[in-house]
Amino acid sequence: MGISTCVLFISDEQIRDFTKEPRNAANLFIGCINFDRQKCCHLHDHWDGLNYLLTGQAEGGELPLCAIKRGDVTYPGAMHAIYHSTTKALAQGLETFSQRQLRERFDPVKMSKAASGGRPVYPGRLWVFPGLADDTFRDLMSYFDGLRDFTARAARNDKGLLFHRYEDL
């Protein structure tokens, strides 16, 4: 059980329409757990760790790199969106990171108390099992690769991104 995030392609028009009817945005995620990689980017419980690697911060950061945690538009129900222009900037930003740079930012000691109130940045298993740091970093890189590829595809198609955090049971 944890808090997961999934990401969908969305048009700028939909982003504006969902501001008036946010329930329609939530409806896009019905059944998203069964969506394939072409339709949805699942970050599962690694979104928090990815945000830390991209921004160097647990809570903050500037768009486009903090897009996992906040967007151009926020909707009720732990959802936010970024317009296609921000998606393009995010795609460009993600392309600039090398695995070596991200590994340098991956600091289990700092990440274990970087979030508000001294809480750990997730994925949480790292703090319970510190010997899994290498495995956790490999997992983070796998999710990073998926996000980078998904974001690049959205940018090529002039799409924005819709992020949704949810509790998985």
Question: What's the structural blueprint in terms of helices and strands?
Answer:
Blueprint: E1 2-10, H1 12-20, H2 22-28, E2 40-44, H3 47-55, E3 73-75, E4 79-82, H4 84-96, H5 99-105, H6 108-111, H7 125-128, H8 133-156, E5 160-168
Antiparallel strand pairs: 1-2, 1-5, 3-4, 4-5
Helix pairs in contact: 1-2, 4-8
Mean pLDDT comes to 89
Shape descriptor reads globular
Helicity range: 40-55%
Q: For the largest sheet, list the strands in their spatial order.
A: 2-1-5-4-3
- In what range is the share of β-strand residues? 15-25%
Total number of helices: 8
Query: What is the structural class?
Result: alpha+beta
SSE string, helices as H and strands as E: EHHEHEEHHHHHE
In words, what does this structure look like?
With 169 residues, the chain is α+β, with helices and mostly antiparallel strands. The protein is built from 8 helices and 5 strands; from the N terminus they run E-H-H-E-H-E-E-H-H-H-H-H-E. The protein has a single domain, classed as YfbM-like super family (Hypothetical protein yfbM fold, 3-Layer(aba) Sandwich), CATH 3.40.1760. The chain has helices spanning 12-20, 22-28, 47-55, 84-96, 99-105, 108-111, 125-128, 133-156; strands spanning 2-10, 40-44, 73-75, 79-82, 160-168. A hairpin with a 3-residue loop joins strand 3 and strand 4. It is globular. The chain starts with a strand and ends with a strand. The mean pLDDT is 89.
